[in-house]
Each structure stands twice: as C-alpha cells, then as structure tokens.
TrEMBL record:
Signal peptide: none
Keyword terms, alphabetized: DNA-binding, Transcription, Transcription regulation
Residue intervals of the Peptidase S24/S26A/S26B/S26C domain: 27-146
Residues forming coiled coils: none
One MF annotation (Gene Ontology) recorded for this entry: DNA binding
Name this polypeptide is given: Helix-turn-helix transcriptional regulator
Taxonomic source organism: Rhodoferax aquaticus
Length: 153
C-alpha cells in the first residue's frame, strides 16, 4: 500500500482521476459529543477529482470522519461517514459543520448571528438549539464544513 497516497491523496508516480481522502480516527458526535484522542489516519475514501473540482474542494483540505449519535437523524445517522472541508470554517446558515467545543467534537448546523453568537442546532427535533457566545466561551472553534456524507441503512 502506498502510504503517501493514502495520507495525502497524491500519487508520487503519476496522476489519477481519483483522490483518496484520509479518514481520521475521530468521531464527531451527533449527540452529546465525543473525541477519540489523537487524529490518526484510519484508511481513506476515494473521490473523483472531477467531482471535487466541480464543488471547489481542495484535496489537501479534506478529511473523512465518522458520525456518532442520533442528533442529526435523519440527515446523518450514527456510523455515517462525512467529508469535512477544514478550509471552510465560516458558518453559513443552513450548513452542517464539525465544531470543537472544549474536548468535544460535534457535527451540527451552525449559524453565526449578528451579535457574535453562534447558533448550534440539530436535524433531530428532540435535541434543543442553543447559542454560544464566542467572545465569552474559550475553546470553541469550527473545524470545517460537512460537504458530503455516506448514509448507513
């Protein structure tokens, strides 16, 4: 196995019409939050270069992580994998993001409000929406935007 190719998505000895995006060994919680420690590469998923280019995605900014929990059901289920663009960290309304809150990694809808608050919501109505005052809450950051997901049935 070409480890360089799995980690970077770039072939050393030639071009390919596919890029392998590394899957890191963390789970973004669609629930109360979870982080698995160090971000080690755990294989990867292949994506068409054309598909990525059409969406303006840069392979070096992409990671695949696993969803854990029920708060984003039915959009994302427990065990689904999501393609995260770590170069897109400015929340846009109606988009899903991976959010680091303290030591918890979450997948949620995020909306930046005019008063400096970050509104965090779930697809599942059983999980309440809440606001985070970014100026008063250290340790909160947007890791990246969810650009695609697999869906387990």
């Amino acid at each position: 196995m070409d480890t360089h190719y799995v980690v970077t998505g770039e072939r050393i000895n030639g071009d390919s019409s596919y890029v392998v995006v590394p899957q890191i060994d963390v789970a973004a919680s669609a629930g109360p939050g979870a982080i698995n420690g160090d971000e080690e590469c755990n294989g990867g998923l292949s994506f068409s270069r054309q598909w990525l280019h059409k969406r303006g995605l840069q392979p070096n900014n992409l990671k695949v992580i696993r969803v854990s929990g029920e708060s984003m059901r039915p959009v994302m289920n427990d065990g689904d994998k999501v393609l995260v663009d770590i170069g897109d960290t400015l929340p846009k309304s109606g988009r899903a993001y991976v959010l680091l809150q303290g030591d918890e990694l979450l997948v949620k809808y995020c909306q930046l409000l005019p008063d400096g608050l970050l509104r965090v919501s779930s697809a599942n109505p059983n999980y309440p929406t809440y606001d985070i005052d970014l100026a008063k809450t250290p340790g909160v950051s947007i890791v990246g935007r969810v650009r695609a997901s697999t869906h387990e049935w």
